[in-house]
Write a structure and sequence with these properties.
Length: 985
């Protein structure tokens, strides 16, 4: 039977046949694959391989033939790439392959020398160097030459400790000494061609059988690969055994050499054959995305190769379970382990298009098997993990893609990169940033010769060609291996998490192969406890059962004569402010206002603004701020949406408002308010308003094009100050600015920060909020101590500070104690110059992340020197009476460092949105985070991650919300307005 007939027969009986590495594999329903069929296939292995590799049957690929050595010898594709990389960075040792062999027993150094001489003689690759002719590189095979090998260092006199240290130093030196690819022409005796050896004596013993040596063999990758190391060690063993007995080399002569392969590869992989194979890869890898795993450090603009590895071992029990699973699923261990790895990468990156590289020996032809040379290739295995598939379905997708990749395996990876014209971002390795390896043979060979034991020593690894490479080997019934990682991107703790979570995925899959990949529980119990308990302890304060105005009244009594408000030359003390607010409240009640009524407040920045707010609260009502500087349409929309029947305002502001039957009260016509009031109407009212009654409704931009009103009770504000007390010592000596619009909740913090502590509130005139210089002057003249700013506003102020301080003899008169940032992302780099001048203690700089829906602030972070070095924006820890979770789309906890959405629970969470239960139920969920008690959580739409120290790093938005000078704007709202215009489609 021809191979074609054999294979058609397979198809008919539902048997699958594929290549994995160099092994033929079969998959068949029980009893279908007869021994006879299997034998026939194995007998025709080379043809079957040719078939599987995509060569048409009947048109076997070209045989590899020796080529004349007097013509210029081309480089193979992979050599070409390494040559190119070497030109880019001459003298790099990144592509050294260092090997160390421990030789135990009596060593005959002269025989070992002969062995290497013979190996160099046998393998042209080792004698190859490179020349450039007409801007093209060629290989030149040097004549065989004598090999030099003697004891390079004798460490036998040293103590064990010094010896170990010296050995590591030698190993590092060897690994980091570079090769000159063009060298080799000068001295016949130089040992610095593309392979070098160094022999070190460790111990000398009276008993020769106890002698110990270490032999360092270092080759450049351009003439070697992982498989070649195995060839080398076997040849050393075989030749040493023969030579020590004065026998000739028992090794069969090599049929072809590396240069012949290079030529063959160039001839064969061209034209139609290449096109055909390339089509597959083009389709397979079209538009593949860069895998952006979260990193511990900022990614350098150009990929670096500094690395190390972290090892791990899976138990024999788990290993056996995995092997068993492979049997029942009809997949290979490679496929199973790779699928689990892809789940890990998906969960860490949040990406669904996952492409992982895997090296293959690429020695499909038997004549290549005994060669030393660079044959290894990388296969890019891409899988779509979208839609939360069950693991078993992912496994089958991985199986398919692996099989297909094997059968197109001989397209050199470097040709692919070229061909696909992948967008070359120098920060990343091309096509695959992450690699998975399942090694068949254990990495540490051990050969026993008569009297001499040769064993590969595992060298400390100091480089990484990819972001991460997971490699595993089955040794003594256990899967062992580790992750090699780039140390410019990751620290060891993070890699330890990867390994732990990888194992957890494997465990979950063994338990249930049908588990949906997004539901696999990555975290250990301890990791969950850390996030659920340690970082989410809730301290609540029973004394918060009060109202804003009641707390204010207590303060007003205590500090009656102290200045409470300052605005453009006007001043009001606490007593006066309280009195006026009482009068307004009495008037409102006379007008029919009842507890819980919604009252609009549309006033310019002025003393009236605070009188208005306090008066409304004292009347038991809820204020809705309407900023006259915001667009008229918005004000009218809010008036209607909140169904406002009573508006507290000023003359001249109302002419353009839709009036309907609304009552209007003008604060700038005070006579009309107080005129009819009885004289007793200056006292506090003491209405039965409770902490759970609403205090204010602030409208924020809405995705659907309409702003929505956030409902906030009194207690949310009271507890905000008591819960943050441990961080601040606000008091009656503080001077605060009211910088922000009263329609922005930062103002709630500013007003009550001052007025609930006996401090002074300086209402900043509108013009000054737009003039950093004048505002800066105000900070000086009013001796402001607490400043709240959005980072964009503060950026301007830093400049004003700089020019002020640049004036000779400028007295540093700033009295600031705290600068509190909020409202938008803080780029710490804007603080550098400020810190250089003023340090970080006076004032303290504090970043607070917050949301209207969770009452102004949610987290706290005191900015330290370390923050300025790093490009990230830390928002720190939650306020003690809140909970903060970073969750994935399935509402599960994430590993530290992995991006997810912020959810906030606890005493700061708003009641919801006014008259919009649908949206309320969408954004305020009632949920039990991984088994902890159910709680109300606000879903923020903000992306963040936990750092190992428990701080939260802010990363951005999930949706299209943007912040303009701290103002929250949903692009959807703008979109809705634009598309309302005729002619806009
Ligand atoms: P608002 O409701 O207007 O306070 O806007 C809340 C949004 O502002 C949050 O969801 C964040 O997107 C953003 N935000 C507030 N404070 C910060 C901060 N400190 N760092 C980064 N973003 C912030
Ligand atoms: Mg805010």
């Amino acid at each position: 039977m021809t191979v074609f007939e054999l294979i058609s027969k397979l198809g008919a009986s539902g048997i699958k046949l594929w290549l994995e590495g160099e092994q033929l594999r079969f998959k068949a329903p029980k009893g279908m694959l007869t021994q006879d069929l299997r034998d026939q296939l194995v007998a025709k292995k080379p043809e079957v391989i040719a078939f599987l590799q995509g060569t048409k049957v009947g048109e076997e690929s070209l045989p590899i033939k020796p080529v004349a050595r007097d013509t210029p010898l081309e480089l193979s594709f992979s050599q070409q790439r390494l040559w190119f990389l070497d030109q880019l960075e001459p003298g790099t040792a990144s592509y050294n392959i260092p090997v160390a062999l421990r030789l135990t027993g009596h060593l005959n150094v002269e025989v070992l020398r002969q062995v290497f001489e013979e190996i160099v003689h046998r393998h042209e690759a080792i004698r190859t160097t490179f020349i450039v002719k007409d801007e093209k590189a060629y290989q030149v095979v040097q004549e065989p030459y004598p090999w030099h090998l003697s004891i390079f260092r004798d460490l036998s006199e040293l103590s064990q400790q010094d010896r170990d240290r010296a050995l590591i130093e030698l190993a590092n030196n060897e690994a980091s000494r570079s090769f000159d690819l063009t060298d080799g022409t000068q001295s016949r005796y130089r040992r610095t061609r593309l392979m070098r050896t160094r022999l070190v004596r460790l111990t000398a013993h009276d008993d020769p059988s106890q002698e110990e040596h270490v032999l360092f063999v270092t080759m450049h990758h351009i003439i070697s690969d992982g498989w070649s190391i195995g060839v080398l060690i076997n040849e050393v063993a075989t030749l040493y055994a023969a030579f020590i007995e004065n026998k000739p080399s028992p090794l069969a002569p090599l049929a072809v050499q590396y240069a012949d392969y290079a030529k063959w590869q160039r001839d064969w992989l061209s034209g139609a054959v290449l096109d055909h194979k390339m089509d597959y890869w083009r389709e397979q890898l079209h538009g593949v995305a860069v895998l952006e795993l979260p990193t511990d450090f900022m990614r350098p603009p150009v990929q670096t190769y500094n690395g190390t590895s972290l090892d791990f071992t899976l138990s024999a029990e788990l290993t056996a379970q995995l092997n068993q699973l492979c049997l029942t699923q009809g997949v290979t261990l490679f496929m199973l382990l790779l699928s689990a790895f892809k789940v890990l990468l998906h969960r860490y990156s949040g990406q669904t298009d996952i492409c992982v590289g895997t090296p293959i020996a690429n020695r499909g032809r038997s004549e290549l098997e005994p060669l030393i040379g660079f044959f290894a290739n990388t296969l890019a295995l891409r899988t779509d993990l979208s839609g939360n598939p069950n693991f078993v379905d992912l496994l089958s997708a991985v199986q398919d893609v692996t099989l297909a990749a094997y059968s197109h395996q001989d397209v050199p990876f470097e040709r692919l990169v070229e061909e696909l014209g992948v967008d070359r971002n120098m920060s990343y390795a091309p096509l695959c940033q992450v690699v998975f390896v399942l090694q068949n043979a254990p990495a540490d060979y051990k050969v026993d010769l008569a009297g001499l034991q040769v064993e590969k020593v595992v060298l400390p690894n100091s480089s990484a060609k990819f972001d991460l490479s997971l490699s595993l080997t089955e040794i003594d019934n256990k899967l062992v291996g580790g992750i090699e990682y780039n140390t410019d991107l990751y620290c060891a703790e993070t890699i330890a998490c990867y390994l732990r979570h990888y194992e957890n995925i494997l465990q979950a899959v063994v338990a249930d192969i049908n588990v949906p990949i997004c539901h696999v529980d990555l975290l250990d119990h301890a990791e969950k406890q850390q996030q659920l308990v340690d970082w989410n302890r809730v301290q609540s304060d029973a004394f918060c059962k009060s109202t804003i105005h009641h707390e204010f009244e207590k303060v007003a009594e205590r500090y009656a004569e102290k200045t409470a408000l300052v605005f453009a030359g006007q001043r009001l003390n606490y007593k006066e402010l309280n009195l006026r607010a009482n009068q307004l409240a009495h008037h409102l009640i006379e007008k029919g206002v009842k507890i819980g009524d919604i009252v609009g407040l549309n006033v310019n920045r002025s003393i009236d603004m605070i009188v208005g707010i306090l008066g409304i609260l004292k009347a038991g009502a809820v204020y809705v701020p309407l900023d006259p500087s915001s667009p008229l349409d918005r004000i009218n929309y809010i008036l209607e949406d909140a169904n406002i029947s009573l508006l507290v305002t000023q003359r001249g502001l109302t002419s353009q408002l839709v009036s309907e039957s609304r009552q209007l009260i003008y604060l700038d016509e005070w006579q009309a308010i107080t005129g009819k009031l009885p004289t007793t109407a200056i006292d506090n009212l003491n209405l039965p308003v409770t902490d759970e009654d609403l205090a204010y409704i602030i409208y924020t931009s809405g995705t659907t094009g309409r702003p929505k009103g956030v409902l906030l009770p009194h207690r949310n504000v009271i507890r905000l100050f008591s819960a943050t007390k441990e961080w601040f010592d606000f008091n009656e000596h503080d001077v605060w600015t009211m910088f922000h619009s009263f329609a922005f909740d930062f103002s709630v913090w500013e007003m009550w920060g001052a007025l609930l502590h006996g401090g002074r509130l300086v209402i900043v005139p509108h013009e000054l909020t737009r003039s950093p210089q004048e505002f800066y002057q105000l900070l000086l003249t009013e001796n402001v101590t607490v400043l709240n700013q959005t980072p964009s506003a503060f950026g301007q102020l830093v400049l004003a500070d700089e020019s002020y301080m640049a004036v000779p003899d400028a007295a540093d008169a700033l009295s600031l104690r705290y600068v509190i940032f909020g409202g938008e992302l803080l780029d710490f780099s804007i603080l550098e110059r400020w810190c250089d001048r003023r340090g970080l203690d006076q004032p303290q700089l504090i970043n607070m992340y917050g949301i209207t829906e969770t009452t102004v602030h949610t987290t706290y972070h005191r900015i330290g020197l370390d923050d300025l070095k790093d490009g990230s924006s830390i928002i720190g820890r939650k306020i003690p009476d809140l909970t903060l979770y970073i969750l994935d789309a399935q509402l599960q906890l994430l590993p530290l460092g992995v991006a997810g959405e912020i959810y906030i629970g606890g005493a700061g969470v708003a009641q919801g949105y006014l008259n919009n239960s649908e949206l309320t139920n969408q954004r305020f969920i009632y949920h039990s985070v991984m088994g902890s008690p159910k709680q109300r959580l606000y879903r923020s739409g903000d992306l963040a991650r936990y750092l190992p120290n428990g701080n939260v790093e802010y990363l951005g938005r999930i949706d299209d919300q943007v912040k303009i000078r701290g103002f929250r704007v949903e692009l959807g709202e703008i979109e809705a307005v634009i598309s309302d215009y005729k002619g806009v489609q």
